[in-house]
Amino acid sequence: MSRELPLEIEKKLKRAARLEWWTLFWMLSIIGVMYFAMGSSQAMKTAWIEDTLSLIPPILFLAARRFERMAPTRAYPFGFHRIGSLAFFFAATALMGMGLFLIYEAGRALILAEHPSIGDVTLFGFDIWLGWVMIAALVYSVIPPVILGRMKKPLAHATMDKVLYTDADMNAADWKTGLAGIAGIIGIAFGLWWADALAAGLIAFDILRDGLRNMRISVAELLDGAPRELATTRVHPIVDELQDEVARRFPGAGVEVRETGRWVRANVIYPDRELSEAAARALLGDEAWRLQALGEHLQDLPGPQETAREKGAE
């Protein structure tokens, strides 16, 4: 089977790569604006860290795109398709770890009853409440990611790219971070000192939730689990479709399906286990036990018509 991607999928991946470069540009500008506006607000600090984390998925996507196209080698005979799975695992690990840290920070602020203060800042010769600057920065931090996220989601579905989907999902939901941050700042203005830490905790919980979900999916991929859907841990319908089709065309044969990045690798097993074990002993000698399954290509298996002719000849 060809290792080349269909032209339409390749075009979508190239467009996704361009959007990821734009994402890096806009997120770097947002990180700069948020850094200079965050002051002592815990919610602003958490939103700034989340924006910084948003750099990880696009960087991993661009890196994975470069490596997954490399030709197979003797050391890596199956190629580098699984680099996408590894990138997805790294992204999930970063999200989960940072979510736990930020929840700890927000909880500590609530327990210690820290009272953040928002003073004034001088801009163009005028004294302005820093809270307005924070709110303006949060509004700016929401607009580009939400637009880019909505543009990337259809591409992620078409190309079955989990890193791209994670990035798009984080971008598209960025409005929740902005809204929580604004609520925290307004709470401080009304004397509700706990509103800032509570808003930071809500943002952190959202980060942790995404990280845990993505971690479950990525670990399943790395453990040769059956392919999962993009946004959930449910097994992808392609598994049942493949198994049903193989059973229909090649009675008695079984199929093992696993995911390697955006690709699916199916190992079709002919039912004669004694033949497989004998072949393993002939090929590997004392190390035959290491061969878990001896697969066959679909075209090498007898189809329904050939099986019927063989039985008739007997």
UniProtKB/TrEMBL annotation:
SUPFAM superfamilies reported in the protein's UniProt record: Cation efflux protein transmembrane domain-like
Keyword Cell inner membrane among UniProt keywords: no
Pfam families found in the cross-reference section: Cation_efflux (PF01545)
Subcellular locations according to the entry: Membrane
Listed transmembrane segments: 21-40, 46-64, 85-104, 124-143, 179-205
Occurrences of domain Cation efflux protein transmembrane (ranges): 27-223
Main location as per UniProt: membrane
InterPro entries cross-referenced by the UniProt entry: Cation_efflux_TM (IPR058533), Cation_efflux_TMD_sf (IPR027469), CDF_Transporter (IPR050291)
Alphabetic keyword roster: Membrane, Transmembrane, Transmembrane helix, Transport
Bilayer topology term: Multi-pass membrane protein
Entry protein name: Cation transporter
Organism from which the protein derives: Sulfitobacter aestuarii
Source species taxonomy: Bacteria, Pseudomonadati, Pseudomonadota, Alphaproteobacteria, Rhodobacterales
